[in-house]
Amino acid sequence: MVRNQLVSQIDQAVESLTDELTEFACTIFGIPTQNPPGNNYRQCAEAIGAMMQKIGMDVEYVEVPQERLSELAPRGEGLPRISVVGYLGDKAQRPNIHFTGHYDVVPEGTGWTTDPYGCEIRDGNIYARGSADQKSGIVSEVIAAYALQKAGLKLKGTLIASATPDEETGGQAGVGYMVEQGYFTRESTDYCVITECLDVDKVCIGHRGTLWFEIDITGRQSHGSMPSEGVNALEFAQRLMQAIDEDIRPLIAEPTPLPVQPPACRQTTLTPTILQAGEKINTVPGSCRIGYDWRLIPELSVEWAKEQITAVCEKVKASMPGSDYTIHYLGEDNPTLVPKDTDLVNTFLANGKTYLGREMEFSVSPGMDDQKYVVQKGKLDHCIVYGPGRLTLAHKSDEYASIEEMKMAAKIMALSAVDLLGLAE
User: Fold this and answer.
1) Where are the transmembrane segments (predicted)?
2) Helices (H) and strands (E) in the chain, counts
3) What does each C-alpha distance from 315 to 203, 241, 244, 246, 277 come to in angstroms?
4) What total number of domains does the chain contain?
């Protein structure tokens, strides 16, 4: 088939599906899948599965066993964790490309000027919590499959589209469980595209690392008029913050040359987020809790970061006899980075240029995402992040997804699937 004809066929097929894309988007955007705790997961997964079946995909549901929910979704209140997987073609046929996105969303929060689940359409944008981050990516991957069907383009291999839960709380019961079950591994998958909200004109090749931790500090309570009789746990926290500024921040001042987006996140960020101490104005606190969100550029590791935190805690403890501390690590993921020069990356770069009319850019995500499971546990380097949602809208009030950008992403996904898998004769 002549290249221009192929590009035009996919373009026309996606454009003809504008109304159905919009209806599908509003259907799943309008389902409040807040996580935690994980509301309405079954309803959303089945709505996505129904759309997949409508376009002729074979559909399966993968549910976390009840007895493992407390382990994999400890904040999930026992609610079900369900992934839906659709196959365009024989599920056993290779090569394959697996597009996947998460359907859980953060709580809506405050400051909205419209109903967070009302799906108001203004200026070609659909306003809803989770529209950008990242149900829009699910819409695009399903519409990409639909467009190939409508254009009469039969792949040599198999296009797989899936939607998973729980990315917003770490993903253990979503892609983490799917990797454990043999999905998204080097043995089962040739190419993987996480349809997370890293912008329609960027190919994301990795993400920064994450270390979330709280430090419980113990001292000795005393009367405020006799502070020498106590050991002030809040003062320990104060000295600890100073030690972090003096000992750790100089070690993380150098930015990465990698294209982390937004550019301000090209430096390691070590952000205090919790400080809890004291019950009464005239009582020296005997306990305190301080928490940090540490995002690590790809050149650093979680193990190294833990060594630095322990060192400064020991330093402060030595300066305050009678004090102690316990570090609780609440989340830890090493940075993820895949090669820039692979068939998957180059295909998306080329096809992005074809439809956008300009060069695509590389990016690295400032926060962790499900790519970590596919690359680190599934051992699959052919895994990028590409989706239509705008990163800068994630978790904000008045979040929206652009209908045109969802269509654009679907075109790029569909053409890339053809290039990577080939067309059947």
Assistant:
1) none
2) 11, 18
3) 43, 12, 10, 12, 21
4) 2
pTM recorded for the entire structure: 0.92
Picking from 333, 361, 379, the residue at the C-terminal end of a domain is 333
CA 401 to CA 267: how far, in whole Å? 28
pLDDT 10s digit of each residue in the chain, 425 long?
689 999 999 999 999 999 999 999 999 999 999 999 999 999 999 999 999 999 999 999 999 999 999 999 999 999 999 999 999 999 999 999 999 999 999 999 999 999 999 999 999 999 999 999 999 999 999 999 999 999 999 999 999 999 999 999 999 999 999 999 999 999 999 999 999 999 999 999 999 999 999 999 999 999 999 999 999 999 999 999 999 999 999 999 999 999 998 899 999 999 999 999 999 999 999 999 999 999 999 999 999 999 999 999 999 999 999 999 999 999 899 999 999 999 999 999 999 999 999 999 999 999 999 999 999 999 999 999 999 999 999 999 999 999 999 999 999 999 999 999 999 97
Torsion angle defined by CA atoms of residues 382, 265, 130 and 14, in that order, rounded to the nearest 10 degrees: -50
CATH number where 395 lies:
3.40.630.10
Matching residue, tokens 């972090």? 244
Determine the Cα angle at 409 with ends 4 and 296, to 5°.
Answer: 130
Residues in the chain: 425
Q: Name the 3-class secondary structure at 28.
A: helix
User: Domain of 231?
Assistant: 209-333
Q: Work out the number of other CB atoms within 10 angstroms of the CB of residue 159.
A: 25
For residues 125 and 61, membership in a common domain is answered with: yes
